[in-house]
Structures are given as structure tokens and as C-alpha cells.
Design a protein that fits this description.
mainly alpha, Methane Monooxygenase Hydroxylase, Chain G, domain 1
Length: 574
């Protein structure tokens, strides 16, 4: 084979793979947009029994046609505290089963059951459908799915055509034969190749398609094809692990669980490799009338045997692996806990709804859960405020940056808490409530909004401290003492707010909160007057004065949000 011929083969193969991948992406994207919101809702509730999680993972993956999307979604949910690690592992197991549906679509429609030419009329029909020109998103997304399916089948046909006739190149066939001639070591070699190539391509469906075509054309035997499929199962875990690089400790553990689950499954399968393949071969022969080991030209050969046998093995492997390992989810949790060690900081940044769980039919119980969750919100805010003094006393940039990062992460947590608690309260408000119940919901919504504003203001104080440090602005001892006094008064107001949040709303005594707010305002007025006098005397420059006035103003603003919380919880009941 000349260099030009090799180059043409590579170009044709790359182009065919591009069409296949684009079709896969379009099909998956269309379905995710069509049903993605509902899928996320279903996923978020898959925290019950392992069976429920497995079924949810399988159903979601079959629906959106992407196990990678499912596992990445799982990692993000665990990262946000919406899924337990055990629930996430169950969903991942189900995703491995759901992804086998893609293999069946590729094999039966793209190779065995039909001709790729059939996809062209499908594509033309999809393009002529009003769905593609609909103004509404749902019909248009459904049209994208149909077009994506057509392109996937076209790509499958192009991959078949791009494969050269290796009978014309006996040296290449001999090289492949040698790779398959090392017995069990050949199986391990092809598993490694499948793993690496899937990591590179970032699409197990594409590697499954390539494997099917290679085996269908006689490039590799059935044993080698099965080994590639096993490697693809390991390689596909790279997507979730890449997504987990920026996740917290539990997000990383969910991603590692995907890897551990598939690696253990492959190791288990290797212990019974030959009996399992014999079982698949007999089943294929019974159904298709041909054994997948039968070579082209031999009696009883049936071209449809390979497209049936490989997906059958893929399904058998994932279903069996899930069935066995689902009994050992606690063991998998211990393994990933060992692989990804606990870190106090990581655990600190994990946010989970502690009291808002499954929806109860009784509005009173739901409101009690929301009140307790708001209490947790208050504790987070107080913890966040406690970091501020460390910004002033930081010995070096590394210590300062670490504290600022903690405050940034807490600010993200407060945003999520506000959104999720407010969403839960809004759902309660949509039900049949008494007048007093409506008042409680209104009070809690107002409190949650102000708690989130407190988090935002604390973050603004931190950013002001950062700008001061970057601009090399330094306060003298008197200014630092004034800000420390302001910090103490706001801390006192926050403590009163937290006590009020954890008190029966109708029994809250607003007077201490109002007194604390008055003390903050009084000190703010005193500092402002002193500041104006200092500017007149030229006691310090513009940079120092601007940073100083910004900080005490932000502390006073923080005090306003603090009193708003207590007022919201009391005024609504007057």
C-alpha cells in the first residue's frame, strides 16, 4: 500500500467517523433538549433503593442516548449534594445498561438489519418535516434527534465503505493475526487498546461502531472484538473523571466509582472469559443460525451474526456486572472512600439539603422542613462571616488567597441554598394553604432572599479586602480597630438573627435585633464623621480613605440585611 493510498484511507475513515460522531451528538443533544429537564428531575429523585437508582440510570441513558452525559450529570448532582454517593453508584450502574441500547441501534440498523442507503430517505424525510422549521423548541429538538439518527446511520455506512479490503494486503492481515496469536495475553492487549482509543475518541459509541466494522469485515476475530468492547467500557469512564477534576470530594468519588465498577466488572469477566463467549456464540447460533466464530466463506456463515453477537455480549456483560455488584454497593463506597481521601475543607464545601427531601402531602410538615433548612442556611452564613478577620491577619498571599477561596465557595453555596429552598417554598405556596400558612411562606421567602444577600455582601467585603491588598493600601492601627469594632457589632446582630430563625416565628422578640441594628448604624455614623474630618486634615490618602469607607459602608449594609431577616419573620405575623 502506497503512502497516497494510506492517506486516502485515513481521510475517508476520519470523515466517516466525523459524520458518525456528529450524528451521535445531534441525536443525543436533540433528545436531551426534548426531555433533559424532566431527566434531571427524575435523576435528582433517584436516591431511594439501589434498584430504583439502576432503573433510573438505565432509563435516562436510553432516553438521552449518552452514558457520558448521564455520568457527568451524576457527578454534578453529587457535587451539589442532590445525590448520595450510594444513589450515584446505582445510577451509574444503570447507565452502563442503558448505553447498550446505542450499540443495538448501531448494529441492527447500521450493519445487520438494514442498509445504510435506508438512512438517506430518512434524512430527507426528516428535513422535510415541519418539525425542523417549528417555532417551538420541543418539536425542533425532536427533529434534531431524527436528523441525528439518520446521520449516525449514514456515518455507519461510510465507516463500512472506508475500510479497505485487507485481502489485498496480506502483510497487514498477518500482523493482525500475530497480535491475536498470544492467547490470553492478546485479550489483555486488545482490552488496553480499546481503553486507550476510547479515552482518545471520548465516545464509546464511536469505538463500538469501529469494533463492529472491523469484526464484520474480518479484520479481527470475535475474541479480539469482545476484548475491545471490554476496554471501551473502561475507557468511557474518562469523561466523568475529567468532569470531576473541579468537583468536591464526593463528586470525585462518584467518578472513581464509575471507573472501579467497570474495572472490577472486566476483571470478573476475565475469570470466565471463555465460558461466557461460548454462551454468547451458542445463543447467536440459535437465534441467527450462524456462529460469530464462523469465518467468511465457511459453511453456515451469516453476515448478521457479528452485529448481533457483539451487542448481545455488551448487554450480557453490563446487566450481569450490575446484578452482581449491586449487592456490594457499600463495599464500592468504601473502596472509593479509600481512593479519594476525606479532606476537612472538601467536606466543608459539600452542601446537602438536610431536611428537605421527598415531598410530603402535608403542607405543615413541608413547612417545618423548610424552616429547619433555613436554620442551616443561617449557620452557613455565620460561618462565612467568621472567615473575614482572617483576610486582615493573613501572613502572606497564599494564606490570604486560601481564605478568599473559602469565602468564594461559601458564596456559591448560599446561591444554591437560596435557589433550592425558595423553589421548595414556591411549590408549597402553590397548594391549598390557610392565611397563616401563606404568611409563613411569605416570611420564609423574604428571609431566604436576605440570607443570600448577606452572603453576597460578605463576598463583596472580601473582594474589597483583596483590592486593598493588590493596591498595597495599608490601614493604621486606629482604622483597623474601628473596623474590628464594626465587625463585632455585626457579629452580634448575626447571632441574634440566628437565634430568631431557630425560634417559633410568632414568638420572636424583635427588640434585641432592632437594638443591634441601631448600634451598627450608630457606629457607621461615627466612623463616617471621623472619616470626613480625617480627609479634611489630610490624615491619609485617597486610596486608604476609599477602601476604609467602602468597608464600613458594606458592614452597615450587611446589618440592614440582617435586621430584614428578623423583621420578615415577625412582621408577616402581625
Amino acid at each position: 500500500m502506497s503512502f497516497t493510498e494510506i492517506l486516502i484511507v485515513i481521510i475517508n475513515f476520519a470523515g466517516a467517523l466525523a459524520v458518525f460522531l456528529f450524528g451521535m451528538k445531534l441525536m443525543s443533544g436533540g433528545l436531551q433538549k426534548f426531555a433533559g429537564g424532566k431527566m434531571r428531575t427524575v435523576m435528582g429523585k433517584a436516591t431511594g433503593s439501589p434498584l430504583r437508582g439502576i432503573l433510573t440510570g438505565a432509563a435516562v441513558t436510553m432516553a438521552i442516548q449518552s452514558s457520558s452525559a448521564t455520568t457527568v450529570m451524576v457527578v454534578s448532582f453529587v457535587n451539589a449534594g442532590l445525590l448520595t454517593l450510594g444513589g450515584a453508584i446505582a445510577v451509574i450502574m444503570g447507565a452502563n445498561i442503558g448505553t447498550t441500547a446505542t450499540a443495538w441501534i448501531i448494529s441492527l440498523l447500521g450493519l445487520g438489519g438494514g442498509d445504510s442507503a435506508f438512512s438517506l430517505p430518512m434524512l430527507l424525510g426528516a428535513l422535510s418535516l415541519p418539525l425542523m422549521f417549528a417555532k417551538r423548541d420541543k418539536p425542533r429538538s425532536l427533529g434534531e434527534f431524527v436528523v441525528g439518527l439518520c446521520l449516525l446511520l449514514v456515518g455507519m455506512g461510510l465507516l463500512k465503505q472506508a475500510m479497505p479490503n485487507l485481502e489485498e494486503y496480506p502483510a497487514f492481515l498477518e500482523a493482525l493475526a500475530r497480535l491475536e496469536g498470544y492467547g490470553f495475553w492478546s485479550v489483555l492487549l486488545f482490552i488496553a487498546v480499546g481503553t486507550v482509543l476510547t479515552c482518545v475518541v471520548q465516545a464509546s459509541a464511536a469505538m463500538m461502531a469501529i469494533t463492529l466494522v472491523m469484526c464484520y469485515n474480518g479484520w479481527i476475530g470475535f475474541d479480539a472484538a469482545v476484548a475491545l468492547v471490554l476496554g471501551e467500557n473502561i475507557g468511557t469512564t474518562i469523561t466523568a473523571n475529567l468532569a470531576a477534576m473541579v468537583a468536591n470530594v464526593n463528586g470525585k468519588r462518584a467518578a472513581r466509582a464509575h471507573l472501579v465498577f467497570n474495572v472490577l466488572g472486566v476483571l470478573l469477566l476475565l475469570t470466565v472469559f471463555r465460558p461466557v463467549l461460548d454462551l454468547i456464540a451458542h445463543a447467536t447460533e440459535a437465534i441467527m443460525g450462524s456462529n460469530p466464530y464462523t469465518a467468511v466463506g465457511e459453511p453456515g456463515y451469516n453476515a448478521a451474526a457479528i452485529p448481533f453477537a457483539l451487542p448481545l455480549f455488551h448487554t450480557f456483560f453490563n446487566v450481569t456486572n450490575t446484578f452482581i455488584q449491586s449487592w456490594f454497593i457499600p463495599v464500592l463506597i468504601r473502596i472509593v472512600n479509600w481512593l479519594v481521601k476525606d479532606s476537612p475543607e472538601d467536606e466543608e464545601y459539600v452542601y446537602r439539603l438536610k431536611y428537605i427531601g421527598s415531598w410530603m402531602n402535608t403542607a405543615e410538615i413541608n413547612m417545618q422542613a423548610a424552616e429547619r433548612e433555613i436554620g442551616e442556611f443561617s449557620k452557613r452564613v455565620l460561618r462565612m462571616f467568621s472567615f473575614l478577620p482572617s483576610l486582615r491577619t493573613a501572613k502572606d498571599d497564599a494564606e490570604f488567597d486560601k481564605t478568599l477561596e473559602r469565602i468564594e465557595k461559601y458564596e456559591e453555596i448560599t446561591d444554591r441554598m437560596e435557589m433550592e429552598i425558595a423553589g421548595f417554598l414556591t411549590r408549597i405556596a402553590e397548594g391549598d394553604l390557610s392565611h397563616k400558612g401563606s404568611q409563613r411562606i411569605s416570611a420564609m421567602l423574604c428571609a431566604v432572599d436576605n440570607l443570600e444577600s448577606i452572603g453576597d455582601t460578605i463576598y463583596q467585603i472580601a473582594l474589597t479586602r483583596r483590592n486593598k491588598r493588590e493596591d498595597a493600601v495599608h490601614f493604621d492601627q486606629h482604622l483597623n480597630d474601628n473596623l474590628a469594632q464594626m465587625t463585632a457589632r455585626v457579629q452580634h446582630a448575626l447571632d441574634i438573627m440566628d437565634a430568631n430563625i431557630n425560634t417559633e416565628y410568632s414568638h420572636i422578640d424583635l427588640e434585641p435585633a432592632e437594638q443591634a441594628e441601631a448600634e451598627v448604624n450608630e457606629l457607621r455614623d461615627q466612623l463616617r464623621n471621623e472619616h470626613l474630618e480625617a480627609l479634611k486634615r489630610g490624615a491619609y490618602g485617597f486610596g486608604v480613605g476609599n477602601a476604609y469607607s467602602s468597608l464600613y459602608a458594606l458592614y452597615e449594609k450587611l446589618g440592614d440585611y440582617v435586621i430584614n431577616v428578623s423583621e420578615a419573620l415577625t412582621v408577616k405575623f402581625k
